Amino acid sequence: MAVNKIIKFLLFFFNFLFWVSGCIILGVSIYLKVSKDGNVVTGEALPGVDLMIAIGVIIMLLGFLGCCGAIRENRCLLLLFFISLLLIFILLLAAGIVGAVDKEKVNDWTKERLNDFVPLQDQTAEIKTDVQKLEAEWKCCGLAKGPEDWGSAIPSSCRCNDTSQPCKTIGGHMVYTTPCSTLIIGVLEDNMVVVLGIAFAIAILLIFGMAFAMTLYCQIGKKEGPTTA
Q1: Triad 132, 134, 136: Cα angle to 5°
Q2: Taking the mean position of all CA atoms in its chain, how far away is CA 58?
Q3: How many CA atoms are closer than 13 Å to the CA of 30, on its beta-carbon side?
Q4: Burial of 22 per CB tally in 10 Å (0-12, 13-18, 19+)
Q5: SS3 at position 154
Q6: Helices 48-72 and 75-101 meet at what angle, rounded to 10?
Q7: What's the whole-model pTM score?
């Protein structure tokens, strides 16, 4: 049937692009993960790279599954592909609703992750170095509460070199008073619209994929006849 062939081609093409996008996401994510410039602290507070790796792997597997189901016209693979896309769509929708409606939960989770590093003077040299890089770049001090996160050993990265920022005198030196968690949460909120936009675009792709898969599934069922399982 001509319609069956068209749907089969569309589903295969869709899943090929799906698989390629998964490969790209996975490759970029792994590169960011192993990059020496990665910051341990921001990696813990913003675990986007790990999430991207998981998404890349899932998209690759689903793309391969969908391609096999379309080429072989296998109803079991197509049904499994449809159910997988439906589950991802539901999870994506739920995560989008939580992110858009209940931002406080996301902010509280970020604060809890950063609070695990306090007191900073008890952390490893690697974590201390990453925190100090963050402080120097973002003009903040400490992670959860401010300079007191360092105890009595406040590093030079907290020194107030920009008088336009909130500062106070501690131990004879002017230091920033804004905790870095405030700025990290600000970045999260600023990028929330972009993240929700990407999630919406992926959701649209999932709907098309489910539609193609179910249509081909039904077409194959009609061709095989009512007695075929």
Answers
A1: 70
A2: 13
A3: 7
A4: buried
A5: coil
A6: 150
A7: 0.58
